[in-house]
Amino acid sequence: MAGGRPRDPHAEEAILRATLDLVAEVGLSGLTVDAVAARAGVGKATIYRRWSSKEALLFEAVATVAEEPPSPDTGSLRDDLLALSVPLGEKLADPHQGRVMVEMAAAAAQDDALREVQRAFVERRRASGRAILRRAVDRGEVPADVDADLVLDLVVGPAIYRSFLSHRPVDADLMVRTVDAVLAGLAVAAPS
Questions:
Q1: In what residue span(s) does the HTH tetR-type domain sit (predicted)?
Q2: Alpha carbon distance, N-terminus to C-terminus of the chain
């Protein structure tokens, strides 16, 4: 029988929640393991036994609360893209979640291991978008040679740009206008 106390799942949940709350309040640069431990009501050693760094802790915290991406199949490319993109816009518009996403991107830009974690996180979400476009090809809504990755970049790019760089509002209306502009660019008639 192994020594030591078994892991407390409630402590882990408290640590992950405290991490997200603190990053939203003070940013990743202001986040400390001491502050997470105090907010979660655990010792620092409890945190360091599970995570090697505050960045690794942040990525796991985000991964545990992030819902699996939707894989909508409404029968319409436009509606599917909206079902995929509007929730992202809502997350970016939320001051808490939006700040956490910006902090994650900044951390990944500085750390190869975190960049790989972020890449895998994003890739799981892009797979849903690629499936949407494959179904649209099958329905004849877009040409078979459509560049699915470019379409996805065009759909989410304006929201990311506004959140991360220009600090302009992101809302459902932006996502609708973006999807309609992308579809117009693909020569797909978007219903009025």
A1: 9-69
A2: 66
Cα–Cα distance measured from residue 192 to residue 143, given in angstroms and rounded to the nearest whole number = 22
- CATH number for 9-64: choose from 3.30.9.10, 1.10.10.60, 1.10.238.10, 1.10.10.10: 1.10.10.60
DSSP conformational letter for 90: H
Residue with tokens 């999807």: 179
CB 61 within 8 A of CB 19: yes
The DSSP line for 88-119 is HHHHHHSHHHHHHHHHHHHHHHH-HHHHHHHH
Residues 169, 157: Cα–Cα separation, whole Å:
14
Would you state the pLDDT for residue 80?
Answer: 96
Q: Give the DSSP letter string of 157-189.
A: HHHHHIIIII-----HHHHHHHHHHHHHHTT--
- Crossing angle of helices 77-93 and 148-161, rounded to 10°: 30
Question: To the nearest whole number, what is the mean pLDDT of the chain?
Answer: 85
CA dihedral 6, 28, 95, 127 (to 10 degrees): -70
